[in-house]
Amino acid sequence: MISDATKVRFAKEVAKYPADQKQSAVMACLAIVQQELGHVSTESEEVIAEYLGMAPIAVHEVTTFYNMYNQGPVGKYKLNVCTNLPCQLRDGARALHFLEKKLGISMGETTTDGLFTLQQSECLGACADSPVMLVNDRCMCSFMTDEKLDQLVDGLRSAEDKQ
Amino acid sequence: MNANSLLSQFRATGIQTCFHDRHINPQILAGLNGANWRLNDYEARGGYQALRKILGQDGASSTNETGVGLTQDQVIATVKESALRGRGGAGFPTGLKWSFMPRQFPGQKYLVCNSDEGEPGTCKDRDILEFNPHIVIEGMIIAAYAMGISVGYNYIHGEIFSAYDRFEEALEEARAAGLLGSNILGSSFSFQLHAAHGFGAYICGEETALLESLEGKKGQPRFKPPFPASFGLYGKPTTINNTETFAAVPWIIRNGGQAYLECGKPNNGGTKIYSISGDVERPGNYEIPMGTPFSKLLELAGGVREGRQLKAVIPGGSSSPILPAAIMMECTMDYDSIAKAGSMLGSGAVIVLDESRCMVKSLQRLSYFYMHESCGQCTPCREGTGWLSRVVDRIESGHGRPSDLDLLNSVAEDIQGRTICALGDAAAMPVRAMIKHFRHEFEHHVAHKTCMVPAYV
Which of A25, A90, B38, B240 sits CB 3.0–4.6 Å from A13 for a disulfide? Predict the structure, then answer.
């Protein structure tokens, strides 16, 4: 279930660390799996454990400790809106509520079409850009006014329709 | 339009927050425009001249008897003279930290850059890494040289993945140019540097939690001592500095420790990047000399927004005690002035609150954060942060009891100083400072079940 191409990416991470410290690559390997498969399953954890010479439970400990690993399937687009204090002062919570209304779900839920998961998040480290939102762990969207949130959600929906 | 190109439209350009003319004598953010982050751009700005200088290859300085431009001792002495203090939050003198490293230790030693920037309010390392990555690489190479270290890692906040990708790209450029790797610029000095990323854990900004994470484990802090200088990554001697600290080093080596010190004020050398967020007209990063009055910084950020009155400022990231406007307006922005006023300069993250803000609601969000991010290792923090959060919640929602203020203070007091790492203190300090300075607002909430200040989005 993990392709050769993925293993090439794993190898690049493992090469950063001493030969007897392959475990150091576990964070990166889990992030790679999540990028390719959408979430980290028990099977993925087992494959990574074997690849890195770790106990599967040690990999699971990492998956469950860090907030950004998806422990189950999520929507095709995971939207994480920061609502920590600096963002709260600049419409962060408002952006989250706007998306709840627009998507018809509460934070923590996924739309029935499986397209969007909406989450509240802690500090993304982009406080001056508020409202900020992280899409699928890797894409930070800044200054997300209501109009931009409309553009983003409507744009992603129409991009999916065309496929 | 496909999804990726759509999403890329919403990426920050840095124009509003970083590339403005409202820095004062900038060193790290000088001359950046978002496009000029590459090696050749950095070299055009004088980049890697400091490295050439210590290796005796800048064509100006003469090499000494050992065949280099600056010895390890000379580099450390220069950094000590500069009065550079750690930019991550603790403000520990960098040169002193470097001198703790057992340079003659025969085994492997490590250098680590802490780019796990998650302290609410802080967004400076992200701009440094995205827009000037080579300045961090050069700073790390110089540090590695000074301490005789051959391997380093830069651990980058997982939420700013584009900064991680950017840094990886910059590393490739530096390797290809012979600035990183074996026999740097033909010298006998070798240094390998790699990037690693977090994935959503505030606690990994704590240096020993970061080391645990780098070892592929849960990021739970270690008991200190032993300190990383004797028992760090993989149990080997390790020096950890913040991104901005490393970024300050090349300028210091090029211009001298004294010149850097003179940019700031005694015991507080150089410039510092302040991230201003909250109720100002122009939130962003501002690089200004240490010791600049807070009032000047506020003016650079366009003042309090919509002409409102300043109410309070959290001067050094969400963990630092809040200061009322009257006290803050008398402060200068440096470690000593803010400490004297009863708070901390911390990471230089300035969160501004205007007159319309309810302090109970503000504290509610912060207390939730610390509960969410407590790693669960120490009982006082694991249980205490939840307790604080629930009590502040009930005050905010109109179910507070008159005894709750004393209860909050007592729980906070019982957390502080009783945990392995500083997260417990970080959760307790905002609570105590909020009640100390704004007790009447909390009492009003308890008595009237509503905010003193009605307008709060």
Answer: A25
